[in-house]
# Entry
Amino acid sequence: MTGRPEEGRDPQSVGRFDVPQQVPAPDAEPARRNGHRPAAQAAPTPTAPPASTPAPVPVDAGLPGGTEPAVSDRPGDHWDRKVANGLAFLRRRLSGDYEVDEFGFDSELTDAVFHPLLRLLYRDWFRTEVSGVEHVPVDGPALVVGNHSGTVALDALILSAALHDKHPAHRYLRLLGADLVFRMPVVSELARKTGGTVACNPDAERLLGGGDLVGVFPEGFKGIGKLYADRYKLQRFGRGGFVSAALRTGTPIVPVAIVGGEEIYPMLADIKPLARLLKLPYFPVTPTFPLLGPLGMVPLPSKWLIEFCPPIPTAHLTDSADDPLVVFNLADQVRETIQQTLHTLLERRPDPFGP
# Structure
């Protein structure tokens, strides 16, 4: 029997099961499409959390565009960075990814290892006061000439570290050392790495010609090897070779006086036969060495004062670099300047081990 479609029904639905449509309740949440509500339907306003519930942290906090970090730095983060920097430093050293100049100076190793150790000595142990740094040029070459003392040449290292820290440009002092220093296996490498070189005119002129600060101690072993009874009495300045290097390059000479080095290892006697046997310039006897053995190498905590004097210009004397009279007079002027400054500093420091 042929049926006729009922009125009001879709002809395509004839012969299909009628599935009743589920009508959502009026208060039900609207349908979502791709995780978002339709634009025409507004989301219900959330209720405020209780007063005791902490406010939620924004998801994008600490990310680009966020205003607050998701997690603040913890106290250990500073040390984590130090460890990471230390490991990176070791990786560069082991891989050889660092630079040295033609003399072997390694500025990275000096800043990371040597200067921090010397800083503990001159700042905390010796309580060093530095004055007159403004007399050291901010750039360009200069020859820094100082007095030598202390049985061990610790004053040269302290001077280089203190100058680097106190100078506004943090300049490095390239020290000139005796031949003996560069014949010792380990000491020679350390001296080269920290910027030292042999005390000879060709090396000094090359450094000065390159615009470096050069440090020299004309007394040599006569200065560091003198007895405590002769403390702060300058010895002879040799033949004035440092003056010739300054004259040839037109470099100003900056005298510097160092008080405090004489007391770190007070030299009471010199055993010359033992010094000749060991091929040393002297064999010191101090209140603690050799009596206390290795403990005698610990320096006494004397109070140090370092003062840089006004520079002595030499640019107008470049034609007199080979004139012995000019060289001698200029060397004597530098020596007298340092000696008078030493007397002034000793008056400011009546107690060698005072505060």
Observations:
- The two ends are 124 Å apart (CA to CA).
- The CA atoms of residues 44 and 236 lie 95 Å apart.
- The mean pLDDT is 83.
- The chain has nine helices and nine strands.
